[in-house]
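Thread: Modeling a multi-component assembly for a lab meeting

Hi all, long-time lurker, first post. My supervisor asked me to bring a structural picture of a complex we are working on to next week's group meeting, and I have zero experience with this. I have the sequence lines for every component (516 residues in total). Could someone generate the structure of the whole assembly? Inputs are pasted exactly as I received them:
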Amino acid sequence: MTGSFAVYANQFRELTRCEWRAREQSTLLGFLWTLLNPLLMFLVLYMLFTRWMGGFMANYPGYLLIGLVQFGLFTSATTSGMRSLNSRKGIMLNFIIPRELLVFTNIGSVVISHAFEVALMLGFLIALGAVPRLSWLAFPLIDAIQLLFVTGLALALSVLAVRFIDFERIWSIITTAGFFLTPVFYSTAAIGANKQNLLRFNPMAHIITLARDCLLGGRFPAWRPLAALTALAVLVAAIGYALFKSQEQRLGDHVLP
Amino acid sequence: MEAARVSSGDGQIAISAAGLGKQFQIGTKTDARFFRQALAWCSGISNTRPLWAVRGIDLQIRRGECVGVIGRNGSGKTTLLRLLSGVLAPTEGLLRTQGRISTFFAIGAGLFPELQVIDNIRLTAALCGMSRATLRKRFDAIVAFGELEDYLYSRLGELSSGFTSRVPLATALHSDIDILLTDEVFAVGDTPFQTKCLAKMNELLKQGTTTVMASHSLDLVKNNCSRAICLEHGSTAAQGPVAEVVQYYERQCGGAPAK
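Re: Modeling a multi-component assembly
Sure thing. I ran the full set together rather than chain by chain. Output:
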């Protein structure tokens, strides 16, 4: 396959640009659609739960917004990465490029949209009275850990999605269930101890908690959960990449028209 | 025999294949559902059957040589080219290649009809391994070759199918190519554009580009190739000087077509 890093980087840049523009800018509202989805979800959930959850925390709007943006990154990146090989089979069958590039560029286009969401989210937090603190500098690190985690997942999911044509539907059910099994719109304090223990096995619950701690609580993330999440993200990325590479030779067979 | 793909050690040989074969599972698409597959694994009953699209292909192509691949529909031409390119992995056999391979299959299939022509030129150039600096230098030549001056900011999907195919072809033909694999790709576009593409391909051949050309156009193969391989049911039926192989194929098809 194509060797030089410069060629690879150029292919990544052009494919990511095209993916993003095709996704966001070809519509009438352009990339505003990107922001509309979390905003609408925010308004609905805020109206429904503010009275109930407002008793558990001081800044429920900020709490909810961070949860929605970070869980949105998880859903969009895994779903888009999973579909990448099927949606770009024309490129796969007609150009000689490293095939993981298709997964990376789809995630890359999601990350561009996520960057806009984060910018809006930070502006919103400030408008709500949050003061930018030094701890905000830790947020990109948490985001990077989450990105590594979702990239590993997406690599594995993309292989499953070309092998099984109904896997996209299965993953859609899993992410919907995951939304309710992650403290996006509710506080862990509002649920029972048994259910809190269940959430301990959900990496997204920990990632969102760390993001809230540094953006709302003004605390740098404690090193132990940060190290554990980093180790998990590296492990998932390594497994996802190894699975992808082990199946790479057969991917062409599965996407043939 | 185990399948393997390695870079060739002999500098004069661009492509070398020995016992090359590709097997597909026919019926996989209808059975590619998660629960049906799980059921098939548990029960040991599968609705698929193996099909060798190509098998036992022995081929040696020297640097700068142009080889034609002919055969009836379903004879394995496209599969052979996809194997040579690395787009598909062989099920068995040994394949050695040396040099940068450029594939001219359905290269318009991967593009973005919702984006502008200029975006798709940039994308095709990147996918063909062209750097940004090289594209800048060759951009005007690409646009002139495809006669795309008036359409650079149109969406690709707005163009006629002929013009749509010009965008990737004009770009890819201006990339750096060591080994060119084509599969009926020059059959697109109008006659003047086809002539221009063939002239460009001849220019590449004169520069020493190794070419493997699958086509149903026997004149195209005869005029451009020195050797040819004729496939039947995935196997080599004839291989050698182009005139002899074309003659063999015409006999198999019931004589030469009337001119």
